[in-house]
């Protein structure tokens, strides 16, 4: 299965600030949690696991997810906001059918 995700220019700029590139990549996992059932877990990583898929590659920026998470990430839009109240990366999925009020978790 091919997973397509979209990264905004603001998110790319922040990933570059995190020194993503070369051996370093962004790992996005879907884990149980939150009031809607699932939540995103994102971290800088260097270790590729046997079940991993590269779901995004542009220049030196790579985003990786395990195959179980990748099926929930198709169509995902990754953005970055520097709002004073809620700054950080934002994950917007067209596949979520419900999300909690704070936007931290979703169900698909």
Highest CATH level, the class: Mainly Beta
Radius of gyration: 13 Å
Q: First CA to last CA: what distance?
A: 17 Å
Average pLDDT number: 82
Global outline: globular
Outline of this structure?
The protein is mainly beta. 15% of the residues lie in helices and 44% in strands.
Which descriptors would you attach to this protein?
single chain; 108 residues; mainly beta; Hypothetical Protein Aq_1857, Chain: A; three-stranded mixed beta sheet
Structure, explained:
With 108 residues, this protein is mainly β. The relative contact order is 0.26. It has a six-stranded mixed beta sheet. Strands 1-6-7 form a three-stranded mixed beta sheet. The model has no long low-confidence stretch (mean pLDDT 82). The chain has two helices and nine strands; from the N terminus they run βαββββαββββ. The radius of gyration is 13 Å and the shape is globular. The longest helix has 9 residues, at 9-17. The chain has a single domain, classed as Hypothetical Protein Aq_1857, Chain: A (Sandwich), CATH 2.60.300.
């Amino acid at each position: 299965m091919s997973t397509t995700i979209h990264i905004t220019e603001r998110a790319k700029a922040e990933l570059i600030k995190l020194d993503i590139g070369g051996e370093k990549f962004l790992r996005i996992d879907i884990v149980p949690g939150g009031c809607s059932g699932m939540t995103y877990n994102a971290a800088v990583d260097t270790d590729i696991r046997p079940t991993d898929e590269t779901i995004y590659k542009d220049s030196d920026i790579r985003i990786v997810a395990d195959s179980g998470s990748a099926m929930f990430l198709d169509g995902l839009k990754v953005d970055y906001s520097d709002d004073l109240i809620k700054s950080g990366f934002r994950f917007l999925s067209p596949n979520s059918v419900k999300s909690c009020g704070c936007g931290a978790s979703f169900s698909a």
